[in-house]
Amino acid sequence: MKKTVFPILLWLAFETVAVVLWQAKDNLFYLLNFSYIGTSLAIALLLFARRHPHARRVSQLLIGTYMLVYLGLGVGVYGCGVCLLKVEGASRYVHAIKGKLGALLGKNEGGRQ
Q: How many other C-beta atoms can be found within 10 angstroms of the C-beta atom of residue 34?
């Protein structure tokens, strides 16, 4: 029980910031952005606290997905006005996510087990 208190409090703090910024700025991006970051941190901390064998891989997958979706693709969709990730770097993150997902599933880069 003690190991789950900090991740839950951290998640609640991020959700509070997300809702406050969303309402104050009237921009859905803040809600989605801070909710994803807080949820990812809480999941990663819970997995590390329980010494899950794939905790590091899951956290890296969540970070890579954040960089690709929110920083790379989501900027134009949610209308933030500033591109935070260059288009040339997007393919690098796609391959990084693919590699992490393959490692999580127990496959090497060649696709063989």
A: 20
pLDDT tens string 21-48? 999 998 888 888 899 999 999 999 999 9
Inter-CA distances, 2 with 5, 7, 22, 32, Å: 6, 10, 31, 28
Taking the C-alpha atoms of residue 10 and residue 25, their distance in angstroms, rounded to an integer, is 22
Label residues 87-98 b or e (16+ Cβ within 10 Å = b): eeeeeebeebbe
Would you say the pTM of this structure is higher than 0.70?
Answer: no
Name the residue with tokens 């127990």.
106
Positions of E strands within the chain:
none
Radius of gyration from C-alpha coordinates of the chain: 16
Tokens representing 73?
Answer: 């693709």
Q: What is the pLDDT of residue 113?
A: 43
CA angle 65, 36, 21 (to 5 degrees): 135
**What is the average pLDDT value for the chain, to the nearest integer?**
78
